[in-house]
Amino acid sequence: MSFVKFENVSLAYSNSEQLAIKDINFSINENEFVALVGPSGCGKSTFMKLTSGLLSPSEGYVFVNKREVVGPQKCVGMAFQASNLLPWRTTLQNVMLPMEIVEPYRSTRRKKGHEYEEQARALLKRVGLEGYEDKFPWELSGGISSVPRFVAR
Ligand SMILES: Nc1ncnc2c1ncn2[C@@H]1O[C@H](COP(=O)(O)OP(=O)(O)O)[C@@H](O)[C@H]1O
Ligand SMILES: [Mg+2]
To answer: ABC transporter domain spans which residues (predicted)?
Structure first.
C-alpha cells in the first residue's frame, strides 16, 4: 500500500453544507516528493488537515503508513499558512510548546525537560536562530518568525 492513500474521500466542514473536497482518490509512495498546486480554495489545506488527522473525512478513508487515520498523526508535520506563534511566549518557549501538549513529552517533561530544551536549542541553531531564543515573535522579522513555527512541528 502507498504511504499516503485517500479512498473516495469527501469532506464537508461542520458549518457548511457544501463539500470542500469531493471523492478524492490519491496516493503518495514512500520517498515520493509531491507538491499540490491549485487556486485558492481548491482544497490543498483541507487535504493536509485530513492527512495529518486534524480533520476526519465525511466520507471515505484516509491511510498513512498502512493505518487508517483516526486522529492527529505524530509522523505528519504541517507548517500552517498563518502564523500560530503565541505572542506571550519567547522563541524557545514557542518551539517547546508541543512538548507541553503532546505525549510522550508531556508526561516526561519533569524528568527530561532539560534534554528537550537542549533539542529545541539545537533546532533553533540549525535554522540560524541561535541568540534569538529569548526574543518574542514580534521582535523577529516576519521571515524569521515563520522559521520556528516550521521547526516546532
Ligand atoms: N474552516 C472552514 N469552514 C468552512 N469552510 C472551509 C473552512 N476551511 C476551508 N473551507 C472551504 O473549503 C474549501 C477548500 O479550502 P482550503 O482547503 O482552505 O483551500 P486551499 O488551501 O486550496 O486554499 C474552500 O471552499 C473553503 O472556503
Ligand atoms: Mg490553504
So the answer is: 22-143
62-100 per-position pLDDT tens digit: 999 999 999 988 888 887 777 778 999 999 999 999 889
Q: Give, using CA atoms, the residue closest to atom 17 of ligand 1.
A: 43
pLDDT, tens only, 9-41: 999 999 998 999 999 999 999 999 999 999 999
- Give a yes or no: residue 106 inside a domain: yes
C-alpha angle 30-55-97 in degrees, rounded to nearest 5: 85
Residues 101 and 132 in one domain: yes
Distance (angstroms) between ligand 2 centre and the Cα of 41 equals 7
In a domain, 84, yes or no: no
Same domain? 95 vs 54? no
Is the distance from the beta carbon of residue 20 to the nearest atom of ligand 1 less than 6 Å? Answer: yes
Count of the separate structural domains present in the chain? 2
- CA gap 98, 105 in Å, rounded: 8
